[in-house]
Specification:
heterodimer; A: mainly alpha; MetI-like fold; 13 helices; B: alpha/beta; 4-stranded antiparallel sheet; 14 helices; globular
Chain lengths: 345, 378
């Protein structure tokens, strides 16, 4: 297994280089000069402009950080490949570059500030998704064609079809505005931001709506996968064997069917968690959530390339690690999985 | 993981209760199991009767869809209802009706007093649990054994069914076993609680021919040791030729002939049984012993033909056969057949095949040896 994990980590390298390279090239292909963007309406004096370009390693500099000039007295633009190498070298030292905005704040600092919000939101959403999704799927499968089952399948179809941002807005309307009006301001939930020192609500209250919104679609998928898997497993021969042994229906479901049915569900939830850690751009934007997703959205719209590059780089690493953890966790659920990449039967 | 405690049942082991006077170990009386589907009522089991005593082996023979498996699953209470429904008849185990038992009582019988082995050993074991855990389960449930004791007994059982190195194998998963080994595990599992009756539903169909004889032999050996009854379901008359005491031939949901092994092989009375007999491959197939298939297919169980169900495929069918349901012709010994002409000795003598038995069944040397050893040869 250690050999397998090592192999997978080595496989990270080309994926990682590929993704960063594409992004790096992309930021140079899109029109617009970052330094002019920083300056905005103002006209920069040439000296300031040169030192800015030098500080972002856009032009060649000497060891003191001074711009090197060619024979005509012009600055020399650093070629793309050289900048990419500089970026990777910096990355290995934990340097993700600096933002073009926010007074040139280091990207690493920005992400360190935003990531905890995203992680907490993702964890909460995954807990909601696992508990409600698995339970609903199980009830639906066990009581097939009952009112419960019809209810679960109807609600999950609706949720799956609903865009997350729209669902979020409906939540805001209901819990934040409608309820406030109806109860005359006695009870309602916060609909924006993550609170702060002088916030109106306790900090946890700010998590409620974003977490449920983020979890909604995934919970619906989890319930549907759980339902179909459990129904499939319950039709297997080994379930009949277990029944023939004298086990009750309940014992058969919990002792024999559940573990088999959970294997694909765990895969889905794991992958989904990876996706959530990448920042839920829609949910975070709707709720002004100070997480990585919202920050990435902001960076993209304002062409803050170092932040885009930095957050995507971190996201790639996080998603790859989560996928590895999910793959390794199969072994604990399914003894047939061997780590030479095959499934024996 | 996800362990739901296995509590010992508080229901009594029925196999310790004496069989009431005038009753057999197992009695199936005119059992009818119908499935209510969108296409209509499927009469999967349509009036099956037989009796079984301890130490006896009943062979149930028939084509696919003749209702032989459904009959056994009905006895075990393993038919999902709905769509299934018992439309009539009863099953008495030691004089107690299994059909009218509560689900909880039935759970105490299943795997305990009556155990079952299924056709496909490759899919009949749960892939995600060890063999030991799956073997232990029944004993913990029915006998209240501790995990440790049940596992120790599992090792014993594996050794008993001839699995080498059982101490290590008990910790392994089903995918680490071959098909024949898995069927041995299934037998060990079925015998774990020393059942009164062992139902084997085509236990050798999915196995290599070389393994088939071993599995049959193993079941016979276990029977001699434990004295349990066996119901052996098969579509292959050859499989039951050596081990069955009684044979029931089923066609389209009902028995067409029932008798002792010798009666079915030496003196069959029903044309369908003749057909099955002629379909057993012989070592010396040729002009003398042609292999004759039964033409056509079994009828739809939703829309059974009027009169005799076998008439459309019967080479001897007369007008009467298509109109009237045949009576059950019973001999003194209890050998019976459902055919209008079974009572006509001349007809039977003229048309019954020169039975396989008189020509010696397609026997492998090991089977011959076993017959001598077991002292069961006719």
């Amino acid at each position: 297994m250690i050999k397998y994990i090592a192999k997978r980590i080595v496989q990270f390298i080309p994926v990682f280089l590929g993704v960063t390279l594409i992004l790096f090239v992309l930021q140079n292909v899109v029109p617009g000069d970052p330094i002019k963007l920083i300056a905005g309406e103002k006209k920069l004096d040439p000296q300031t402009e040169i030192s800015l370009r030098a500080s972002y390693h856009l032009i060649e500099t000497d060891e003191n950080g001074e711009a090197i000039l060619d024979e005509n007295g012009n600055t020399i633009e650093t070629p793309l490949w050289k900048r990419y190498i500089q970026y990777i070298v910096g990355l290995l030292q934990g340097d993700l570059g600096r933002s073009y905005q926010q007074n040139g704040k280091p990207v690493a600092d920005i992400l360190a500030e935003k990531y905890p919000y995203t992680i907490r939101l993702a964890l909460l959403a995954i807990i909601i998704e696992s508990i409600i999704g698995i339970a609903a799927g199980m009830i639906s499968a066990i009581k097939r064609y009952s009112a419960w089952d019809i209810g679960v399948t109807t609600v999950t179809s609706a949720l799956v079809a609903m865009p997350a941002f729209w669902f979020g807005m409906l939540q805001q309307l209901f819990w934040g505005i409608f309820l406030k009006n109806v109860t005359d301001g006695a009870f309602y939930l916060p609909i924006s931001g993550a609170g702060g020192p002088h916030a109106e609500f306790q900090a946890w209250a700010y998590y409620l709506l974003p977490a449920f919104t983020l979890a909604a679609v995934s919970t619906a998928y989890t319930a549907r996968i759980m339902r179909s898997q459990l129904l499939e497993v319950l039709g297997q021969d080994y379930i009949r064997t277990a029944r023939a042994k004298g086990l009750s229906r309940k014992a058969v479901i919990f002792r024999h069917a559940l573990k088999n049915a959970l294997i694909p569900v765990v895969t889905y939830i794991g992958m989904d968690f990876g996706g959530m850690l990448a920042g839920a751009i829609l949910t975070e934007t709707v709720f002004n959530w100070p997480g990585v997703g919202f920050e990435t959205y902001r960076a993209i719209t304002s062409r803050d390339w170092p932040v885009v590059l930095g957050s995507v780089t971190v996201i790639v690493v996080v998603v790859m690690i989560i996928n590895l953890v999910v793959d390794v966790s199969y072994a604990f659920l399914d003894p047939r999985i061997r780590f030479d990449g095959s499934k024996s039967e | 993981m996800f362990g739901l405690g296995l509590k010992k049942r508080n229901t009594q082991d029925l196999r310790n209760t004496p069989i009431p006077e005038g009753h057999h170990l197992l009695e199936v009386n005119d059992l009818k199991m119908y499935f209510h589907t969108e296409d209509g009522i499927v009469k999967a089991v349509n009036g099956v009767s037989y009796t079984l005593d301890r130490g006896e082996t009943l062979g149930v023979v028939g084509e696919s869809g003749s209702g032989k498996s459904v009959t056994s699953l009905t006895i075990m209470g393993l038919i999902p209802m709905p769509p299934g429904k018992v439309e009539g008849g009863d099953v008495l185990y030691r004089g107690k009706s299994l059909i009218s038992m509560s689900e909880e009582e039935l759970e105490g019988v299943r795997g305990n007093d009556i155990a079952m082995i299924f056709q496909d050993p490759m899919t009949s074991l749960n892939p995600v649990y060890t063999i030991g855990r799956q073997l232990s389960e029944g004993m913990r449930l029915h006998k209240g054994m501790s995990k440790k004791d049940a596992l120790a007994r599992s090792v014993e059982l594996l050794r008993m069914v001839g699995i080498p190195n059982p101490e290590q194998r008990v910790q392994e998963y089903p995918h680490e076993f071959s098909g024949g080994m898995r069927q041995r595990v299934m037998i060990a599992m079925a015998l774990a609680c020393e059942p009164d009756i062992l139902i084997a539903d085509e236990p050798t169909t999915a196995l290599d021919v070389t393994i088939q004889a071993q599995i049959i032999e193993l079941m016979e050996e276990m029977q001699q040791k434990n004295g349990n009854a066996i119901i052996m379901i098969t579509h292959d008359l050859g499989v039951v030729a050596d081990i069955a005491d009684k044979i029931m031939v089923m066609y389209a949901g009902s028995p067409v002939e029932f008798g002792s092994r010798d009666e079915i092989f030496y003196a069959p009375m029903h044309p369908y049984t003749w057909g099955l007999n002629r379909s057993i491959p012989e070592p010396e197939i040729g002009e003398k012993h042609p292999l004759t298939p039964i033409k056509g297919n079994p009828p739809s169980l939703v829309d059974l033909p009027e009169g005799c169900v076998f008439a459309p495929r019967c080479p001897y069918a007369t007008e009467k056969c298509f109109k009237e349901v045949p009576p059950t012709y019973v001999t003194e010994s209890g050998h019976y057949a459902k055919c209008h002409y079974s009572g006509n000795a001349e007809f039977v003598r003229a048309n019954a095949p020169e039975t396989s038995r008189t020509r010696k069944v397609a026997a492998t040397p090991t089977e011959d040896e076993r017959l001598k050893k077991g002292g069961r040869a006719s």
